[in-house]
Amino acid sequence: MALIYGSLFQSSSPVHAFQLNGDGGFFPLDVNASATQQNPFWLHYDYKNRDSEKWIEGSELFNEQVKSALCGHAGRWRILRVGDGVLLTLQTLNTNVGQRPEQLVAFRVFINGLIIISSRHRKVNSLDTVITDLQEGVGAESTGDWLVAVADAITDEISDFTDTLHERLIEMEDFILNGEIPERGELALLRKQIIVIRRYMAPQRDMLARMTTEKLLWLDETDRRRLQEISDRLGRCIEDLDGFVSRTAIMSDEITNMMTEMMNRRIYTMSLLAMIFLPTTFLTGLFGVNLGGIPGNEFRFAFSVFCFLLAALIGTVFWWLRRSRWL
Predict the structure, then answer these.
(1) 302-323 and 221-287 are packed helices; what angle lies between their axes, rounded to 10 degrees?
(2) In what helix (H) or strand (E) does residue 67 lie, and over which residues does it extend?
(3) Segment 73-95 mean pLDDT
(4) Which DSSP category does 155 fall into?
(5) Which of 49, 73, 153, 293 could be joined to 126 by an S-S link, Cβ 3.0–4.6 Å?
């Protein structure tokens, strides 16, 4: 394997440039340092940075497929074996300010025994945990260990968000059981978040599982076992999300039934009111024809008697509806 010196990255403008010290910490990348199995390089780029993009496209460390992915031109989930290295496209939650979690952040990683090259545009907050561990001296000791740490940080974030979705589902279910309807769009947004996270995490689980079977010298048995555990944990999150989708479908049906029942109740009430006032409407219409004078117009108390008779008629119809159990 050809030697890789820090001077190769001198004009690449990375966001972060570290050399792992093999003991859980790191050194700032020195131009005279060389990458080894015990002390690999990790460089993290923003591919929208013109200097970084230009360096990646002109580097002899990668083939064209890797360059295209690291520059953000290939958005599909993939795991691509390149010699003794691997190209991964990973997805994680978007926890940046003012953006929604389901608007996932993608970042690409090319990794082998000597170097880790990662690139993104929007900030990947999951990597902050990995960097913090390195700063405290309890981080990754090798490239394989780094991959495990990143996969673990992403899965922890997904697991925590899954728990949050579960709590929101329980609150909404209790809300509906109390006969109340959630605000318009609230259930739709929850369902969208569940479906999107499930859609993007399933291929990621498969990629992590596949990594455990790749014959890579820089992945030891401990790394493979931990990657399999992370893949299984992510799989359990996906199973939970599948259950959440079914629960939201049931909630949607229940809301539809509640709204239909409310509408039917209103229509029923209006029909009963129409039935109560139908005889009075007929009588007032009949007396209002006025072809040959209003009947009883010469009687002083005719209007009062007529109003009394209408009230009696309304009462009789109301009593009949109650007796017939229509009310």
Answers:
(1) 140
(2) helix 64-70
(3) 83
(4) H
(5) 153
Closest alpha carbon to 190 in 178, 179, 176, 204: 176
Strand order in the sheet with 26-28: 26-28, 16-20, 41-46, 115-120, 105-111, 85-92, 79-82
pTM of the model: 0.80
The amino acid present at 236, given as its one-letter code, is R
* C-beta of residue 224 within 8 angstroms of C-beta of residue 218: no
pLDDT tens for 309-318 read 878 887 887 7
Based on the number of CB atoms within 10 Å of its own CB, is 151 exposed (0-12), middle (13-18) or buried (19 or more)? buried
Q: Which amino acid is at 130?
A: V
Which structure tokens are listed for 104?
Answer: 């996932």
Question: Tell me, what amino acid is at 92?
Answer: T
Backbone angles phi, psi at 234, to 5 degrees: -65, -35
At residue 36's C-alpha, the angle toward residues 31 and 41, to 5°, is 55
- Residue 184: φ, ψ to 5°: -60, 130
Long-range contacts of 131-139 (CB under 8 A, 24+ apart): 131/16, 133/24, 134/18, 134/20, 134/24, 134/25, 134/26, 135/25, 135/26, 137/23, 137/24, 137/25, 138/24, 139/20, 139/24, 139/25, 139/26
The token pair at 190 is: 């929850």
Q: pLDDT of 207-239, one tens digit each?
A: 999 999 988 889 999 999 999 999 999 999 999
